[in-house]
Amino acid sequence: MIKRVGLAALAVSLAACAPPSAGGDENASATAPIAPAAGCVAEASRDWSAVGNQYYVIEAEASGATCAEANATLRITTSEGAVLFERAYPTAQVTLAFAPTSDQARLRDELEAWTENTADPASADSLPAWPARAARPPNFQPADGVTRQVYETARGNQSALFCYPDGGESNACVTLAGTTATLLGSLTPERP
Q1: Taking every pair of C-alpha atoms in the chain, what is the biggest distance, in angstroms?
Q2: Helices marked H in the chain — which ranges?
Q3: How far apart are CA 160 and CA 178, in angstroms?
Q4: For the chain, what are the domain ranges?
Q5: Is the dihedral of CA 88, 74, 99, 68 positive or negative?
Q6: Closest CA to 184 of 92, 59, 113, 87
Q7: What is the per-residue pLDDT across 136-156, written as a single tens digit (0 to 9) for each?
Q8: Is-contact 73 61, C-beta < 8 A?
Q9: Which residues of 50-85 are buried (b: 16+ CB within 10 A; e: fewer)?
Q10: pLDDT tens, 52-67?
Q11: Which end of the chain is less packed: N or C, by CB atoms within 10 Å?
Q12: pLDDT of 14
């Protein structure tokens, strides 16, 4: 018994002689303010009910040393979280969606707007037809690898269509069918 009391007294004295922890008072770390993250970071998401009973989640996030230097990513996932489409852009190149003077709060609002579908109606058959023997459809720039057959098949199937700003005057358009997403290209404004 005396041996146990002696060991307990030794442990208490050693603890009293130990230097304070690097964080100082143990309770101080629980109440100390958390330093804000460096740079500019924002995110937004929304559920999207496409044609028929197709449901997707549209996510957007941006980060950078400053909001003007941020890179933004748009992602389309299934409601279970499987990524079907993802594309990143410097916000400075997507002036249709992002202002060069945005702060973190405004960037979050811009991301929220970026996740809204600009296609109305949200069906690929609303895209301009690609005439036979034409290099491309009028007012549309096909993505690399998208042929007339791929494009017209999406239109004929009336695939779900999600479009979003991808430049200063254009909107990228992605067709979705179940768990398949295809970037068709970008709608461009009509030129006189």
Answers
A1: 101
A2: 2-17, 26-31, 104-114, 148-156
A3: 9
A4: 40-187
A5: negative
A6: 87
A7: 999 999 999 999 999 999 999
A8: yes
A9: bbeebebbbbbbbbbeebbebebebbbbbeeeeebb
A10: 778 999 999 999 999 9
A11: C
A12: 38
**Residue carrying structure tokens 């690929």:** 124
Rounded distance between C-alpha atoms, residue 57 and residue 81, angstroms: 8
Residue found under tokens 């479009």: 163
Average pLDDT over residues 157-180: 94
d(CA 44, CA 74): 10
State pLDDT tens for residues 75-123: 999 999 999 999 999 999 999 999 999 899 999 999 999 999 999 999 9
Which contacts of 49-54 are long-range, i.e. CB under 8 A and separated by 24 or more positions? 50/122, 50/160, 50/162, 50/176, 51/122, 51/123, 51/158, 51/159, 51/160, 52/160, 54/160, 54/176, 54/177, 54/178
Question: Between vectors from CA 146 to CA 141 and to CA 147, what angle results, nearest 5°?
Answer: 100
